[in-house]
Amino acid sequence: MIEIGSERIQVFDTTLRDGEQAAGNRLTPRQKLEIAHQLNTLNVDVIEAGFPASSPGDLEAVKLIARKIRGPVITGLARAVEKDIDQLWEAVCKAEQNRIHIVLGSSDKHISGKFSSSREAVLQRGVDAVRYAKKLTDQVEYSTEDASRSDFDYLCRVVEEVIKAGATVVNIPDTVGWAVPEEFGPLIHRIKERVPLTDKVILSVHCHNDLGFATSNTMAAIKNGAQQVEVTINGIGERAGNASLEEVVMLLDRRGDYYKRGTNIDISEILTTSKMVSEMMALPVQANKAIVGKNAFAHSSGIHQDGILKETGTYEIIPPKLLGLDKHQIILTARSGKHALKHTYNELGIQLNDRELKQLYPHFLNFADSHKNISHSDLKKLYKSAVDR
Ligand SMILES: [Zn+2]
After folding, report:
1. Ligand 1 centroid vs 173 CA: distance in angstroms?
2. How far, in Å, is the centroid of ligand 1 from the Cα of 164?
């Protein structure tokens, strides 16, 4: 159900639509269904399952997901033309809850450059498309493509007219990642102020990462009243990708003191979902990626290791257990101190006394200087060769 005015942020996952547009991807309908099941377990509110008019395979995939997945709203993308809307409707009509999502440009670059049309004609086309979709279903979302580069007065007119025509969700995309947070947050605020009808609908945002601001812009929009966020797992998507689900969700979870909003996401499912999407799409996650990167919970500096072994809060703001991990990782390197070394041996079942630790430490440093990875068996060998028992 759509909750207007709720404290809870709706998570609209577009991994299977925008995410699948990432260069080099193509999932089969079965693979898409498998990911959709996992997104359901993760407890997203909306799954954008594809763009049915783009290919017969995508139509089939969206249809399959709409039939099989119970819980989230199932939607897909349609351009503001009847043929696209009909195909999307054919795909999602069997869903427990469905939504028609229409996209149409609102910037002059799109209006004259892409459509060779006029603002008035494009506005009318959008209104007609919403009216047409509204005859098919209750939930209609309208995306003002390239909103952040659109004329503000015109953008507000579009928002107002599509709401009057029946749109229940209005999405403000930063389609090319052009906005900065100090503009994008206030843009949402100003739209709400200028168009009081926005109080009757869900205001949504969809941010791209071309300049690295996708998550920041999304959070600025939340702070200014956006109620739905369009995000993807691992931040994948067209070009440099979209705002990442895990970053937005964890920011709301960890910094609730500031944002005062939450989601329904089951945080303990984030890593499983991230891994599945990365493997199925053959898109590796960068090691230092926030939340889901291989090194996100690995501490390798000696000063940090010493701190975290004394008090985890010193360098750890996300308890690994929240994400279903046992605990943080201590990576032994030539920058590790005696404390971390003793701790790691302890975990291997070897209790070093002070004399042994002192004797072993210089040998360890020598070894660590010439080896990138230090395994447990390396540590055991080192212990045997360097410590007089
Ligand atoms: Zn997009």
Report:
1. 7
2. 25
